[in-house]
Write a structure and sequence with these properties.
The chain is mainly α. The chain contains 16 helices and no strands.
Length: 411
Amino acid sequence: MAERRVPPAGSRPQNRDTRIDALRAFCLITIFVNHVPGNPFEQFSSKNFGFSDAAEAFVLISGVSAAYAYGLKFQAGSRLLTAIRAWRRAGVLYVAHLVSTLVTLAIFAGFALTYAAPELLDTINIKPLVTDPVRGFVGLVTLGHQLGYNNILSMYGVILVMLPLFLLLAHWGIAAMLVASGALWLVCGLFLIALPTYPGGNFWFINPLSWQFLFVIGMAANMHVRRGGRIPVSVTLQVLSIFYLLLSLAWVKVPFWGVDVSFGLPAVLTGFDKTFLSVFRLTHVLAMAYLLVTVPALSNVWRVGRRNPLAVMGRHALPVFIAGTLLAMLAQAWTLTHASSPTALGLIVVAGLVAQAALAYYLEWLDSLKAAAKRPVAAPRTVTPADSPLPANTHVPDLRPAMASPVRAAS
């Protein structure tokens, strides 16, 4: 058996795995489609085929990516620097969240003024900011108040703040990190522990204390593989995963949403709650991920070229996500003030996707310009005696007196 070569800690893969970028871009596209209600493409999004949706897949993939960015770099001598980098990224997400939120408010306020539609200010959780702006602005800055469709970046940012703690636990083993993360998820679900909203006294719609478990699972799986391990291929697990996915598909399509399957147990164990990431939602996205990893035919579908639109969009996920959020908010404000047919909504969605792809390609082109500017400029070549075209020991007359100034030469 050939020896398995383990990449050194902190190293980057020689060739970027475009499957991660393509899957991340697919999640971004699906989230954008879902954020424009009523469009004809919405019925084909993942939420209509099972218990989980694109948000769960996006967080799981983000955990896989975090293993490259931070996972194996968290070693003695570089732990503080790695933690600072994760927190700096969390700060970028915080600023991006605030900017996205403020622009969303401006979009809805602008449409409300332009089309005399004050009812727009009662949608997507804007009303508390209008009725109590002092507390509302405090809530915005402290992340206590979040607008609808503007709550993924804040959740992701909080998870990145927690990330160094999980990586510190991984020092004692990946299993220790998973157990601690799973225990936090379970305790929060059983006792309804979540970050509070302000004003309002409720919970964050997507609770990072629960969703961190999905993120850590993705990170742990990638760290395990990069350390020389592998994901076991089990026919039994594959069959069970397929059966569960088919069951969830039937449940959604029949539908059986009204059937009570709680048996008196907490919702996190039996329900479909999104805030606390219930078991049914968690296992659904993990079943899809397991099949994707262990069935080469499924995995290779996402192995695209670097110039493929999915790969390019996935490499620039944050700006594409922000653009998609704002375009979706524009589309929502438009449809709430104008009668739009499904065909018109479909065209709006297509135009929004083209705009996001164009942004990604622009950023890719800009990166290529930056990379070209950083390349060292070749210095002029100096001719050495060994490079001279004249034979060795050839006498070269001194021409410097003949090249004196014209005045001196004429005299």
